[in-house]
Amino acid sequence: MSSQPVAYVGFANLPHQVHRKSVKKGFEFTLMVAGESGLGKSTLVNSLFLTSLYADREIPAVEDTLDQTVQIEASTVEIEERGVKLRLTIVDTPGYGDALDCSECFQPIVNYVDDQFEQYLREERGFNRRHITDSRVHACFYFISSTAHGLKPIDIEFMKSIHHKVNIVPVIAKSDMLTKSEIAQMKARILQEIAENGINIYNLPEADDDEDEEFKNQTTYLKAGIPFAIVGSTDVIEVNGKKVRGRVYPWGVVEVDNPDHCDFLKLRTMLVTHMQDLQEVTHDIHYERYRAERLKHGEVEDLGPPPTTPGTKSALEAKDAELRRMQEMIRKMQLQMQQQAGDGDELPATTNQSSAPNMPRASRNVISKQV
């Protein structure tokens, strides 16, 4: 008896289909950088993505920052690497912590995050839900000064006001000002103060049992680096005949991509390998919490009509025309039914019609005639 070949259905190729579709569609990611001025936020962003988003930025004078309010600046850049497209939006917060009174300086940032949730909620209610632009903030790199010996009161208040809305990734800025032992002490102190104040920062997910050992070791390695002590630079220098990005000092050179010098490589690896998880946490936890709060207070009905775009205007007009046509047909049918009912025999006053009180008028007439 010949052996039958094993049947092959082909659904094992589904991941490849998803991969091709995702690559064709491209990816979206929104990163917020927050922290006091002068901590190297712009330099870090340019170093991470090899771009120059802030070439035309001007540094304000001291007298202009006394009463300065926090501004929200969003810059979008299209990045393509090996055929994969990423629509990256960087949200910067110039003016944060610069004013004389910083008690409410983080409120515009909180409002901006809520506004993006609100916009996404409105677009979900729109007519065309297939092309929703996701402008929600997926991650926030919060810069902590390396000279503060821990968290400042403004750092604690900011993270407490936004930790249930955004994935916070704490970053120790300009860590080349500290020795290795000072960095270790500062990391421990920051984590202790974060735990004491009940602040939730982004925690890397645990590796599954079926993952390979390399990925498990990488996850453990990245978790041990939080908060990341980083140094940013876009300058290319030559060290031992090799061109690297770094900073030159009288006592030596700090290489940005050298894991022995700073955690820049860890931060970039965390962002790239867990970008999808950051988006899922934003959607499944932070956004759902916001949406549930709106539903709890019954405010969703008060959002007004769904937003329209030029692409959906013609489709909405066609729907309105179809609705008017259906309403006209129903009106004509009702008139015909009323005329037919008027032409029928009048029932005696003693006819009992209470046997079917909830049925339409035409149905009650038919039952009465049968009786």
Strand content: 5-15%
Shape: elongated
Biggest pleated sheet: 6 strands, mixed
Mean pLDDT score: 79
Structural description of this entry:
By secondary structure, the chain is an alpha/beta fold. It has ten helices and nine strands. A six-stranded mixed beta sheet has the order 2-3-1-4-5-6, with helices on both faces. Strands 7-8-9 form a three-stranded antiparallel beta sheet, with no helix packed on it. The C terminus is likely disordered.
Q: Gist?
A:
By secondary structure, the protein is α/β, with parallel strands linked by helices. It has helices at 14-25, 41-49, 107-124, 153-162, 180-196, 213-223, 264-273, 275-296, 310-343, 361-370; strands at 27-34, 73-81, 84-92, 139-144, 168-172, 228-229, 236-239, 242-249, 252-255.
Task: Explain the layout of strands and helices.
Elements: H1 14-25, E1 27-34, H2 41-49, E2 73-81, E3 84-92, H3 107-124, E4 139-144, H4 153-162, E5 168-172, H5 180-196, H6 213-223, E6 228-229, E7 236-239, E8 242-249, E9 252-255, H7 264-273, H8 275-296, H9 310-343, H10 361-370
Parallel strand pairs: 1-3, 1-4, 4-5, 5-6
Antiparallel strand pairs: 2-3, 7-8, 8-9
